[in-house]
Amino acid sequence: METLLDFLQTNWLELLYKAWEHLYISMIAVFLGILVAVPLGILLTRMKKSASIIIGIANIMQTLPSLAVLAFFIPFLGVGKTPAIIALFFYSVLPILRNTYTGIKGVNKNLLESGRGIGMTSWERIRLVEFPLALSVIMAGIRTASVYLIGWATLASFIGGGGLGDYIFIGLNLYQTEYIIAGAVPVIIMAILVDYVFSIIERKVVPTGLKGMKEVA
Amino acid sequence: MLKIENVSKVYKGGKKAVKNITLDIKKGEFICFIGPSGCGKTTTMKMINRLIEPSEGKILINGENIMEKDPVELRRQIGYVIQQIGLFPHMTILENITLVPKLLKWSDQEKKERALELLQLVDMGPEYLERYPYELSGGQQQRIGVLRALASNPPLILMDEPFGALDPITRDALQEEFKNLQRTLNKTIVFVTHDMDEAIKLADRIVILKAGEIVQVGTPDEILRNPANEFVEEFIGKERLLQTRPNVQLVEQIMSRNPISITEEKSLTNAITIMREKRVDSLLVVDEENVLKGFVDVETISEYRKKATFISEVIKTEVYSVNQDSLIRDSVQKILKRGFKYVPVVDQNKHLVGIVTRATLVDIVYDSIWGEEDNLVAEMAEMF
Q1: Which of B103, B139, B334, B338 is the most exposed place for a label (fewest CB within 10 A)?
Q2: What ipTM was assigned to the predicted interfaces of this complex?
Q3: pTM of the full predicted structure?
Q4: B86–A216: do the CB atoms touch at under 8 Å?
């Protein structure tokens, strides 16, 4: 315990810096994941056959060992933050994609018919009906992805991406428990905080009318 | 204003959902499509706003072929109300009502004014504007559904079993309200239902469909009086044919059996005496065999008093009569709709056997209102 306090006293500035690195690596990856997976998920709901194939591919990607994926990018992108972000981005796609797809698919067909019947274009149906109604499910996917990514971002350290993973690996190599703890605990705290922040965002963006409906139901 | 010409819908695999339907709908008309499930009523309706594209035939709105129009534009010009209400749960009542105006890019001010105006039509105040659909009862929600269809003031509105999911009392109230609304706003309505009572209550004309084909088109009365075939009869349900009283079906059961009549060869003086005695203003004229010939009334007699002596000279022969074993509805029709004071009742050989007057109708109405209550009182008396 004392060694840990000593460690914090001497290294707190560095720890903060590494936490920041860790946070932005994972958040940029989540952000890219949202940019790709949400439109792709909506697109998939318009395609009947290819949807299951593409989701299948995303599933397979998810099962690839993360270390292997990180290593895989080294020959193409070298080492550093960029390959780390790209590798993490691949992992963020699946949960967001799947939730977007299920969320949009789950929108009541009557509402879509109603929208079509009163003369909405497909884009208007997506923008005014499907997306707002699916938003809470999509947000759940984004939250899952961001918690995953904060955990996995520790591996970025392997390819020189920095972050709190540095401490964990130093600790493992040198057999220094305080390093491991100083790396792992902030990761956990960060994951919880980020999830909390997203839950606030979710409450802000999900349409008011839907919240009331859930209270009633 | 709406012409459906030889329209068919064939689905992939050759299933014909709608076969060669032709229908001409006038402006302001309330048309009900009715039939068992799978009869093509909804398909036909959805072809009008191209939610389903017709395979053959033409649909013209005010002379314009809908297939030559952009489907989105077309739908914005036609009101549409669906069965499960279809209000958007994430939008306020204001946003829901003014969705079509929004798509048509009206200003916020215009939208709000329109919404208030529409809410007034159904006696709902401005406090509803900012509420969400889940805060409203089913009946209120469906009112909003109807208002949404009226928002951009389309001349034509399509409705797909809009009141189907409501409880009977709300449904009844809404039907009434909506019918009044339709009359005041003079909208053309195409209304799909499987509820015959609803169709009879609302429709100007009912279109009965079966297996994708039109079986019969007519006013509710025409259909009730002359069902085209057994299918229609069955579909209407026998009991509906005699709505007033379940145990009274035929004219002979309600007619008064001693109509005041006179024979042709009697004099006008005789006639006026009988009238005075019996306190009536017209007499049915029969021959020796009691066959109905016509009638005389007091106006005619006083007009021809100087010139004519015998009834045969002044008789009016255009007299509507009903057969004694025809349905009550027929005679009631003639009295109520055509303004007759009475309808003579005859048998197969035109012999005068009775008469149905306005007083008879009063009796029927009296019985249907109080008769059952009397039974109830009797039953309760027995119980104690």
Answers
A1: B338
A2: 0.79
A3: 0.69
A4: no
